[in-house]
Amino acid sequence: MRILTQVVTYNEADNIGRLIEAILTHVPGTDVLVVDDNSPDGTSDIVRAVGASNPRVQLITRTSDKIGRA
């Protein structure tokens, strides 16, 4: 069984690195998926950097202002 921890963010550059580290430490069997709402503060950049050295960390970033329906 695999575990995925999803974190939804907006302007969390000051916190996201510590949060990912804490999740990976306290839930060692999990992968982390950060879904960022196009934060202007660089949140996605930080997650990308963490993910570059840890394949258990992935990122999805909203890049459009359009809201669609499924």
Give an overview in words:
The structure is a single chain. With 70 residues, the chain is of the alpha/beta class. Helix content is 31%, strand content 27%. The radius of gyration is 12 Å and the shape is globular. The model has no long low-confidence stretch (mean pLDDT 93).
Topology readout:
Blueprint: E1 3-9, H1 16-26, E2 30-36, H2 43-53, E3 57-61
Parallel strand pairs: 1-2, 2-3
Describe the largest sheet.
3 strands, parallel
Q: How many beta-strand elements?
A: 3
Question: Helix/strand/pairing class, anyone?
Answer: alpha/beta
Rg over CA atoms, rounded to whole Å, is 12 Å
Average residue-wise pLDDT: 93
Proportion of residues in extended strands: 25-35%
One letter per element, helices H and strands E, the order comes to EHEHE
Shape: globular
Stretches where pLDDT is under 50 for at least 5 consecutive residues are none
Measure the end-to-end span. Answer: 28 Å
Q: Order of strands in the sheet with the most strands?
A: 1-2-3
Number of helices: 2
Helix content: 25-40%
What are the salient characteristics of this protein?
70 residues, alpha/beta, globular
Concise overview:
The chain is of the alpha/beta class. Helix content is 31%, strand content 27%.
